[in-house]
Amino acid sequence: MIINTSLDDFYQRNGAPQPEGIARDIGHFNVFESEKLFDKKTGDRIMPYSRRAYYKISWLRGKSRAEYADKVIDVQENALLFATPKIPYHWLPADSNQTGMFCIFTADFLSPGKTGLGLDELPIFQPGQLPVFQLSETEVKEIEYIFRKMLKELGTDYQYKFDLLRTLVMELIHYGQKLQPMSTLSASQNASERISSLFIELLERQFPLESPRQSLSLRTAKDYADRLAVHVNHLNKVLKEVTGNTTSEMIGSRIIQEAKILLKQTHWSISEIAYALGYDDLAHFSKYFKKQTSFTPIAFRA
Length: 302
Prior knowledge:
The protein is of the alpha+beta class. It is about 40% helix and about 15% strand. It comes from Mucilaginibacter mallensis.
């Protein structure tokens, strides 16, 4: 069984020390050996990160499957997988014999000011790409060397170790971008259920809003379709079949749910709430909220 958990909870459950990077104003970075990620009490495998916040580069060893909205990729032995918090996917191990290593990092860790590159500008993190790469035995040795060097460096007191770790992360990214993507399966079962599930996951990743300075990055059906690399008409058709609602209806419903939470549980002004939910026009937000709830935002808050 795989349990998704936060990093802080993982360190408590696994008895592992928190690395220095968590508390420093440099963005977060860490590297793990997959076979060591388990709850000491239950033996369950733990995924110590929130996909909403972290990028991830994984060296996968063992049979597994990566499922995206319109793609399914079978991993037979060794592969390199790149994950961004902006594109949801499901990773399904075929058995318990899963080893390898992976590193996680926030966008701040590799911000343009530190590397000269924006993560989401890199081809490997673009929607529609196939970020899973089969590795030969020679490539496995080279990839493992980089991960082992990361693990060793993280435990040192070297003053500039995070600069070196950024270099190693970029080396992995460029290594992957030079590889040939793995082929997808020509036929996949339950495609509609998978697309629906990944849409809902992507929708939920936009919340909760934690600051009035935040603003939803995905607002329209096309925004979500582009991120999932499917046509907006196909996404609408699938969601209507599976859930009975259109993409826009599901997005609107979740926005209203978040608006209610913010109105009741924060002291943000209604203008701040409207902006955070993607409305530049307060009157438009108020009109839509009243249409969906029969209350104005002011009345609902009161």
